[in-house]
Amino acid sequence: MDPIADRVMEDIKSLGLGEYAEELDEKGYTVLPPDIACPDGLKDRLLDACLAVAENRNGKRPDLNADQAYSPRHADQFEGALGAASGDSPIGDMMQSLVIEGEVFEEALMNPVLLALSTYLTGYSSVLLTMACFIKGPNKTELPLHCDAMGPSPLSSISTECNLTYALTDYTREKGCLAVVPGSHKLCRQPRGEERLVAKNPSAIAVECPAGSLICWHGNTWHGAYNRRSGGLRVSLVIDFVRKHIRTAEHLTEYVPEDVLLRNSARFAVITHQAMAPTVPDQRKSEQNMARAKRVLSAYNQELGVDLQKFEWSPYA
Ligand SMILES: O=C(O)CCC(=O)C(=O)O
Ligand SMILES: [Fe+2]
Among 91, 184, 223, 239, which residue has the most ligand 1 atoms within 8 Å of its CB, making it the best to mutate? Predict the structure, then answer.
């Protein structure tokens, strides 16, 4: 008997997500359509916010209809990466730490359907690995297949990481959409050699879906991206959760403003690293961090009505 599993199944059922959870079990990925994933015009508001952050960070608002490679100042680090010719990039620009860039990003993170699926995969105590916007223009190089779960093989069959990606522009093969290998999460290992090549792996398929869809996958699922043959830009917002013992790509503990924490739930505080208290050489700071972590965890337990620490054995805790 696992009361935490019952709890997440209630969340899944009450939101009408049963079939999507089944697909996650079977294929290792699922796609929520825009009407479920992006109510109240969330897609347009997120896309606009991502373009505004790009303008703010790079000095120029990206032109969604531009026909050349997208390569602002911060994207040049990825040029030539992963086998690309110089001047070409399989990644485009990647802008991270977006959760403190405005309320719409908080809304995207705390979207109940997104949280239900992330909880199904990585549990109620999982935290944000990163919230990142990818902006990609036409390119020649595919992003090779890989899984996001980290560590040596065999990987845990229980997901230690999960990826929830809002497609903010249409995803088609021509437009450089995500590629996945259905069922590959069951292999519990990274692809090797030619298995990694999207174009050469006969099991890889294109995840085609309209803008506003939310694509969700298990940390072990092999995925990559097709190169973008058509013009214009592809914009996506990637939200990655990891289990709380895994090192995150972003460090948010001291960086989430108080007013942002005040307007959000205890779960938001947990997700954004407020319950993490790594010991630091400054003893006073360590004590402050520990006190904050205790406070946040206790508020979260109260909010959930469950003492999560009593159920650490559950894959859903
Ligand atoms: O560019 C893509 O579609 C894939 C990005 C990716 O590998 C990820 O979000 O983990
Ligand atoms: Fe990935």
Answer: 223
The count of domains in the chain is 1
Asked, for residue 236, whether it belongs to a domain, the answer is yes
Nearest alpha carbon to residue 3 among 312, 311, 236: 311
Pocket of ligand 1 (CB under 6 A): 134, 143, 148, 163, 165, 178, 223, 225, 238
* Burial (CB count within 10 angstroms: exposed 0-12, middle 13-18, buried 19+), residue 249: middle
| Token reading at 87 | 């001047």
Walk along the chain (317 residues) and give the pLDDT tens digit of each residue: 999 999 999 999 999 999 999 999 999 999 999 999 999 999 999 999 999 999 999 999 999 998 888 888 767 667 766 777 777 778 888 999 999 999 999 999 999 999 999 999 999 999 999 999 999 999 988 999 999 999 999 999 999 999 999 999 999 999 999 999 999 999 999 999 999 999 999 999 999 999 999 999 999 999 999 999 999 999 999 999 999 999 999 999 999 999 999 999 999 999 999 999 888 899 999 999 999 999 999 999 999 999 999 999 999 99
Is residue 74 assigned to a domain? yes
Distance in Å, CA 255 to ligand 2 centroid: 25
Domain holding 22, by residue range, is: 3-251
253 Cα–ligand 1 center, Å: 25
Q: What's the CATH code of the domain at 202? A: 2.60.120.620
Distance between CA atoms of residues 13 and 113, nearest Å: 11
